[in-house]
Amino acid sequence: MTPQKLQRAAGFLTGLWAGVLLGVGFIGAPAGFASTFPETAGRIAGRMFMQEAYLSLGLSVLLLLMLRRIWQMTETRRSILGADALMLLAVAFCTVLGYFGLQPVMAAAKAGQGSLSFGALHGISMSLYAVKALLLLVLAWRLNSAKPA
Questions:
Q1: Engineering a disulfide at 32: which of 18, 41, 92, 113 sits with its beta carbon 3.0 to 4.6 angstroms away?
Q2: What is the Cα gyration radius of the chain?
Q3: What are the φ/ψ torsions at residue 24 (nearest 5 degrees)?
């Protein structure tokens, strides 16, 4: 596979991934809360965000490997940690912090424990999710518009 085709595939996969995030965050979760009891909707949304978190970690690794291969195939001697790879690492960081870091604290806050309220933690979690989606949209645009470097 040529670097151009591999980069096109990485760009397509990144765009698809961003679409999944937007679908879950802006369609799936709000629709659940609009159509059923908050407790049930919360469990459904939690399950969707859990599946999205694991998908995000897996796709982060896959895309980092794809970017590494593109870097190896093009004979540049720049750092492998270019802007694209750093964006993917930031997406993985947002996933780990947002889901694996904040979700247990949010559950404790719901039970009345902890120093921050559930609403404040939910706002932080939503902000990390939005940053992750924005980074993926920018990365998809970069991968689909640039020549392999």
A1: 41
A2: 18
A3: -70, -50
